[in-house]
Amino acid sequence: MTRSFLFLLPQWIWRRSFLWAALMVLILIGQSLLVILSIRHEEIKSQEQVEDLSSALLTHIKHEISNEVRNTQSLVWSAHDNSSWRDNAAHLLNQSQLLLQLEHRTHSLELISRLTNESLIPNAKPDPIASRLISIENACSSAKRLQKPFFSSSYFNPEFAEIGIEVIDFCIAHAMPSNQTTFTIGTVGLHQLLSKSVSIDTQKRHEISLLATDGARLARIGMQRGKSVFVGKRSLILDGSNLDLYVDSSAARPSFIPNLSIALVLGLSTALCAVILLLMRDTRERSKVETELAQSLAFRRAMENSLSTGLRARDLTGRITYANPAFCHMVGYSFEALQSHTENGADPPYWPVDRRQDYRTRQAKRHIDMGSDISSFTHLQSNVQGFETEFIRHNGEIFPVMIYESPLLDHQGHHTGWMSSIVDISQQRLMEGQTRHQQERLQSVARLVTVGEMASLLSHELNQPLAAISSYANGSLNLLHEPDEQTLPMIQDALAEVANQADRAGRIIRSVHDFVRRRDKSHELISVGQLMHAVMPLIELQARKIRTQIELHMPIPELKVRVDRILIEQVLINLARNGIQAMEQISTSDSRTLTIDIQPTSESRVQFSVQDTGAGIAPEVAAQLFKPFFTTRTEGMGMGLSLCRTVIEQHGGTLEFASVLPHKGCRFWFTLAIAPNP
Ligand code: ADP
Fold it and tell me: Cβ(660) to ligand 1 under 6 A?
């Protein structure tokens, strides 16, 4: 199970595990090698020290022996007879720390005198051992033949120092004044030789021995036993005798842990491992951050390239430091061209030449305004300000743009320039123009429809004043046939009435004319009283036709609104006309009442309400009421309510309606903002 699971691991995990294992093995090998080399180095150093010590001791020992031999020689040469020999010998023994005994012998080696060194061997027995004579004989014959001091081989003298001492003799031949050759034989204690030659310090850490050529130990010195690990061996070659000097250090093989250098090596290599691990972690984190950065850079680049909004950055001198492809495409210049154009703070090439001065002033002012905010601002977004302006493309086309600009801060919060996003709004402007144009056309069509509807009403209305004018005019003409003092005032009254009726007819015509006339001004400040005064004649015109009663409640006619007067008038006329038409079906004219109510709903808004007593609105009609071209009337166009709603929404309000009671009519209302008193 586990095995199959392990095989499922991705390959990169295997590779990484293998690399880790290889690294660990390498570090272990490296550490072991370091330890081995370090131990080896210690061993070599200790061995070298022993070798050096052996050579130095050998030189020292040789020096001590030759000193003694030389001193003995001078004794021999200065002695004329046996008594002077004895005096000199006693003196010499007194001085020496090596010589145990001096003998004076005849040419046939018979003993003449023997003196022992009392300070070195206080209880020496007087008789020499017999076997010694043979080796003395050899040494002395050689000394005589070669005319130089000669040594015997070493031997153990049990007579000395109670337990016996290993010694070596040397023989010096010399001719006495009587021409007879005599021999002086000096006996050197090997232990004394070592004591004299080896310092206390060396004795503390080494065991030093003199060995016979067969390896037998003859004498040893040293406060500790040698460990036979670091040893030095030197041959002490004397004329007639060979000995070996054997130096054995009391130091054992370097042990593993207490050794300082090994501890250092281990510590350092452990620290090295830790550093490598930390470095690896650091590298891993760094590469992770780098990958994330590369990804976010790629993401940013893809985002910038896909944007249809232009992005542009400028430094404080005005030089363009960045422009995305959308902006370059918008203005028709490459980024390099934009950058070189704006070098040294020159104007950008997409500013129309004749407006550059204005743009420069505007930009400087805006930067001062925004720059003053930087020290205190905490929310960058709050500083993004949008404004509209116009740029010129490389091909000479001027187009409108919307610019949102904010200060550019570096990672330490220092202000380094400006970042702007630029939206080409030429298409938007085009669409807006088309929509406006269409709306205007629709509105004028709707107005014409209304006028058409009114034409019949108008002829009916004008009939009355025209008939009155006609009858007054005829009456006046009749009176003029026989003018007298009584008829004159009557004629005057009749003419005044003619003028009055003509004025009324003129007002009727003017109200229609005013409505149809294209407006000059869009938004104007107007009181609700003025507004109603303008529309009431037209509403009354329609109401009179079906004998509808009109009730107008307008407690504060001075309330002012800033509106597109003609459009709001048309809304009011439309709503009133719809109400009147809804009431046409009702048979009794007593119950036909159109109530127009204009009341403030708050300090800032005024509500216009038009309520009729018609049949109300059926739910299926209510669902489609505001749809363009929806109508239930055969002669209707279905544009009235749709236009009304658009107009009210353009003025920041909503057009609402409600059926008052089932079959008790319907109420439409909307609100407008009250214009503050100047
Ligand atoms: P039109 O007047 O040309 O029909 P409108 O958009 O003004 O177009 O009205 C659409 C429809 O809404 C009308 O045909 C009518 O059925 C209904 N309607 C509008 N106002 C009222 C009202 N006050 N009472 C009942 N129905 C109404």
Answer: no
Residue 22 Cα to ligand 1 midpoint, Å, equals: 90
Token pair for residue 376?
């205190």
Give the amino acid at 2. Answer: T
Q: Helix (H, G, I), strand (E, B), or coil: what is residue 521?
A: coil
pTM of the model: 0.42
DSSP string, 410-439: -TTS-EEEEEEEEEE-HHHHHHHHHHHHHH
Q: Say if ligand 1 is within 6 A of residue 417 CB.
A: no
- Tokens for 534? 């303008």
What was the pLDDT predicted at 127?
A: 56
Residue with tokens 């204009």: 598
Cβ within 8 Å of residue 408, ≥6 positions away = 313, 415, 416, 417, 418, 419
Tokens found for residue 66: 């030759």
Close Cβ partners of 624 (under 8 Å, ≥ 6 residues apart): 630
Predicted local distance difference test score (pLDDT) of residue 6: 55
Q: Quick one: three-class SS letters along 330-367?
A: HHCCCHHHHHHHCHHHCCCCCCCHHHHHHHHHHHHHHH
pLDDT for the residue numbered 257: 58
Ligand 1 centroid to 626 CA: how many Å? 9
Range list of β-strands (E), 565-675: 593-600, 605-611, 656-659, 666-673
Continuous segment of H or E residues that includes residue 235: strand 231-238
Q: Tokens 């018979």 belong to which residue? A: 110
> How crowded is residue 125: how many other Cβ atoms within 10 Å of its Cβ?
13
> b/e string for 632-662 if b means 16 or more Cβ within 10 A?
eeeeebebbbbbbbbbbeebebebebebeee
- Which phi and psi (to 5°) does residue 386 adopt? -100, 145
Q: What is d(CA 107, CA 580) in angstroms, rounded to the nearest whole number?
A: 180
Question: CB of 612 closer than 6 A to ligand 1?
Answer: yes
Q: What is the pLDDT of residue 451?
A: 67
Centre of ligand 1 from the C-alpha of residue 624, in Å: 10
Residue 121 DSSP one-character state? -
Output the pLDDT for position 524.
Answer: 87
State both tokens at 58. 């050998």
Helix (H) or strand (E) holding 525: strand 523-527
Phi then psi for 321, rounded to 5 degrees?
-105, -10
How far is the CA of 444 from the CAs of 66, 437, 440, 517, 566, in angstroms? Answer: 147, 11, 6, 9, 11
Residue 198 is given by DSSP the state: S
Q: What is the mean pLDDT of the chain?
A: 84
Judge if the beta carbon of residue 157 lies within 6 A of ligand 1. no
Q: What's 324's DSSP letter?
A: -
Mutation choice for ligand 1 from 641, 648, 664, 668, CB with most ligand atoms inside 8 A: 641
Which residue numbers in the chain have pLDDT < 50?
A: 1-2, 376-383, 518
Q: Which residues contact 647 (CB under 8 A, 6 or more apart)?
A: 564, 567, 568, 570, 571
Question: Given this model, what pLDDT does residue 54 score?
Answer: 94
Q: Is the CB of 323 under 6 A from ligand 1?
A: no
pLDDT value of position 394: 92
CA-nearest residue for atom 12, ligand 1, is 625
